[in-house]
Amino acid sequence: MTRILIIEDNYSSSLEFGTNIARILDMEGFKITLISNIAVGLNLAVNLEFDLIIFELNFYSLKAEDILKRIKSSLKNLQASSLLITANYEFEAISLIKELGISDYLIAPFTKRDLLATVTNCFLEHQII
Q: What span is annotated as the signal peptide, if there is one (predicted)?
């Protein structure tokens, strides 16, 4: 079974967004782990085996540089594909995403079809499906 880790930033007011993503992917047959703390999530990502890591980050409110450096450091040692979801569509944010080595990204709001297509593309890129 394909395992997906969803990591929400600590600055979200609720887990509603991540829970909705988890619910959609669970209904598609994926095994989902949802974490609302970046440090804990990165620790899980490094110590457990996941096929895809989805980061849901609010670039507007978090101290992006420190968090992004930790993500980049963690990802370089992982075989998992990665997806970043954000509402920030500014050029600087997209550039940071690409610098991280993230496989793909989604700009919120998006549809269920967008999410599933992007997840599929991440898997195809890493030949998981």
A: none
Domain that holds residue 67: 3-122
Alpha-carbon distance of 49 to 10, in angstroms, equals 22
Q: What is the mean pLDDT of each run of 10 residues along the chain (129 residues)?
A: 86 70 96 89 87 80 60 74 79 70 85 96 76
In a domain, 90, yes or no: yes
Domain-located, residue 128: no
Retrieve residue 94's tokens: 């997209």
Read off φ and ψ for residue 30, nearest 5 degrees. -85, 150
Q: How many domains does the chain have?
A: 1
One-letter amino acid at 44 equals L
pTM to 2 decimal places: 0.84
CA–CA separation, 61 vs 25, rounded Å? 26
